[in-house]
Amino acid sequence: MQTDNSYANTFATDSDAELVLPSHPAQAREPQWLAFNAELAGQLGIPESLHTTAAGLGLYSGTELPDWIQPVALGYAGHQFANFVPRLGDGRALLLTEIIAPDGERFDLQLKGSGTTPFSRGGDGKAPLGPVMREFLVSEAMHALGVPTTRALAAVVTGDWVQRDEAQPGAIITRVAKSHLRIGTAQFVAHKITQGADESLRQAFADYVIARHYPLSKDRKHPYRALLRQIIDQQAHTVALWMSLGFVHGVMNTDNMTLSGETIDYGPCAFMENYDPNAVFSAIDRAGRYAYQNQPGIALWNLARLAEAWLPLLAKSGESQQQLIEAATELVHEFPIRYEAYYDQKMAFKLGLNSVTAETQALTRDWLSLLQDHALDYTQSFRQLADTLETNVEHFEKMQSWAAWQQRWHKLLTLQGDSDAVVSARMRQHNPAVIPRNHWVEAAIKQTVASGDLTIFNELTQVLRTPYDVVPLELSRYAEPAAPEKRVTRTFCGT
């Protein structure tokens, strides 16, 4: 297995910058396996000696680290609910190393929940079992759904207790990402420069991002503008996929948006059941800042903060400050254009249509209005819409305006000339049969916390690996919406 520490080696020498600070995990009292992702381990080229072995348990619990591990905590800042916090950082996470996969791609290997770091700010640096299980299930489901995301390699229980509202079992997740660099990292660099760090740190960090994630930007006439544009495009694509799946991140602070475009930090996240543009699940988002329908606008706001952090790098020779600000603003406002293009195409596919027109956009809007007006399940309704090509779906037939909408839909399908079989197949490729529904995630957590039983967790893990396939009959309950009395409407981040 080939490993590296390129980020630490680049920035650890500047201790005043605090981008990288050495730290070590706490000793877990009695670590035990919860889950291991052998498929991901194989893709990363991790040897079997570090799978479900004693050596693997020592690594993923942080209790026995090999000599080639150099654990560090990463510094970053962030706007949390629009309030700037200049020093956040990995308060309960440690970057162990960077793995070079057999295909040459580089990934961070990180422990989360492994104890205090220099950025813990008085916290215990640990993670309860519930949030670890949630992140394992949802991040792997997002990957299977085709969304850029951090992934879960391993999860262990520590044998320790973590005190939150009540004592809970402690756990650690091993997270894999293309990197853990965030918009908040760029903000941290910019803030450090205002506090006396050398201006060269801004360019050094941006150059590292280019080398790590966007090498094509390096040879452009204005490489940092090209870099910002590529990040904007990646974020537009990711958020469009969230929206098409009914996913609510829950805490879109600037420190929770990666520069790679991967979804990160599955704390108070959830998937909508009934379609509701105002859906909020985070227990701390009392004003609805990060509601489902607000996510594209928040992404735009966050990207504006990134442009501010990198503003000196975006300047052209002879350009005035006002011209620079206008140019940066224009760059950032490419986001809604790119987002809408990605979203409209994805929604057209979900309706079985192969191109985007004004008619398909109107059809999508009116379909969502029907779902909202009749309080229908978002995920199931798209899947059942494909069924209407072959049979009647009773609750659609009862919907006011269904017949008129269906007629418009069939007209567009006829114009594109595809058979019902082709349309139905396309729809099933873009509309999952199963998502990690909140009530089942919570049921898995409660079962494991109460008795150590992993039945629901393991069955959910299994069915979520192939979310677009027909769900086996014996697991079909995981595709069903929650009964009203079982709905989980509030989730927590676990800090």
UniProtKB/TrEMBL annotation:
Cofactor: Mg(2+); Mn(2+)
Keywords tagged on the record: ATP-binding, Magnesium, Manganese, Metal-binding, Nucleotide-binding, Nucleotidyltransferase, Transferase
Catalytic-site annotation from UniProt: 255
Binding residues annotated for Mg(2+), in chain numbering: 256, 265
Reactions that this protein is recorded to catalyse: L-histidyl-[protein] + UTP = N(tele)-(5'-uridylyl)-L-histidyl-[protein] + diphosphate; L-seryl-[protein] + ATP = 3-O-(5'-adenylyl)-L-seryl-[protein] + diphosphate; L-tyrosyl-[protein] + UTP = O-(5'-uridylyl)-L-tyrosyl-[protein] + diphosphate; L-tyrosyl-[protein] + ATP = O-(5'-adenylyl)-L-tyrosyl-[protein] + diphosphate
E.C. number: 2.7.7.-, 2.7.7.108
GO MF annotations, alphabetized: AMPylase activity; ATP binding; magnesium ion binding; manganese ion binding
Binding site for ATP: 89, 91-92, 112, 124-125, 175, 182, 265
Keyword Thylakoid: no
Biological function: Nucleotidyltransferase involved in the post-translational modification of proteins. It can catalyze the addition of adenosine monophosphate (AMP) or uridine monophosphate (UMP) to a protein, resulting in modifications known as AMPylation and UMPylation.
UniProt record similarity statement: Belongs to the SELO family.
UniProt cross-references to PANTHER family, sorted A to Z: PROTEIN ADENYLYLTRANSFERASE SELO, MITOCHONDRIAL
NCBIfam families linked: PRK00029.1 (NF000658)
Protein known as: Protein nucleotidyltransferase YdiU
